[in-house]
Amino acid sequence: SPAPASLLAPADVSQGKGLFATRSIRKGDTIFVERPVVASQFLWNALYNYKACDHCLRALETAQENAQRLLGRSSQVLPHPEQCSIRKDLHQPCPQCQVTYCSAECRLAAWEQYHQVLCLGPARDDPAHPLNKLQEAWRNMHYPPETSSIMLMARMVATVKQAKDKDRWIKVFSQFCNKTANEEEEIVHKLLGDKFKGQLELLRVLFAEALYDEHLSRWFTPEGFQSLFALVGTNGQGIGTSSLSQWVHACDALELPAAQREQLDAFIDQLYKDIEKESGEFLNCEGSGLYVLQSCCNHSCIPNAETSFPDNNFLLHLTALEDIEAGEEICISYLDCCQRDRSRHSRHKILRENYLFTCSCPKCLAQADDADVTSDEEEEGEGETDDAELEDEMTDV
Known about the structure:
Layout: E1 7-8, E2 11-12, E3 16-17, E4 20-21, E5 30-34, E6 38-41, H1 43-47, H2 63-71, E7 92-93, E8 100-101, H3 104-118, H4 130-141, H5 150-162, H6 166-174, H7 181-192, H8 196-211, H9 222-235, E9 237-241, H10 243-252, H11 258-279, E10 285-290, E11 298-299, E12 305-308, E13 316-320, E14 331-332, H12 337-340, H13 344-355, H14 362-366, H15 376-380, H16 387-395
Parallel strand pairs: 11-14
Antiparallel strand pairs: 1-4, 2-3, 5-13, 6-10, 7-8, 9-10, 12-13
């Protein structure tokens, strides 16, 4: 999507990219809504039957089906079923390979951009097909919780292969933040673990067998493949969709008598507690995408904007968390709520390991004299999440 008139993303050599307001933005305003250049569901997420549109990642289960699967309880019935937004009558499979789309529009959009190259046809369940071998290798290297997918890179290649103007698409992908060879290696190491060099070479060979294209020959060399891998690792934005979450938001908006409201809220609270016991943190259809504008947003430990996916698909909404004045930088947080509350030392450790930079936001500067150690209390609380905060995270899709 082109940048709205209210935004500017200057190419500042000293800072890389940044996104700045060119007019005043009020707290709660939607700064922009952006469609990704390319997106893909995570492979383990799909394998475990989290049903999502193969193009836009819209959750395909009804809210009740979603709750039943997450609870492992087929008898679960949700009240107010009319608040579920899923339209199964609109769902369409690819006629060749049977992957499912939420609509004819998504099926056509996928076909026109990348699916002609990636469609497996009757070989969808053939483990010897090069694309299936690539996906199986990836799953064996990158277990949940997932942060990326080899298929995001496959869709990048397929997009260029199908395009009439290949150079335009290569230019689009080259806009994303690039790293030096040493930084790229560190990112790949983080994604693949200790055996990353051997694993990366295996992936590269399988990637080339499935998708090689002369026009993109550099992407298939060891150096080019590492760069492609690092581009996705650095710029990929996580996407979460949930028909159950959509149903909860719709129920929250209902005007009900006080007693009914209290009863419904108690039901939803208990539902999430039961789901958490059965399915843990894996509630949503999850994937990742590349967003040109969003990728320009720098990090702050006290962000003035946040991303969300309220449309139950891959459309990213950037919303102001506070008033932002003209000329002010628009920053998001690369850390979740719990991580942002940790010490400066712990935040820097996470950001350095995952994004290869040292944060100098106002919060970090104010805590510059804090001891560079992680407190015992913080270590103990690392895996713990407050119940209320957990419920917020579950429904904040």
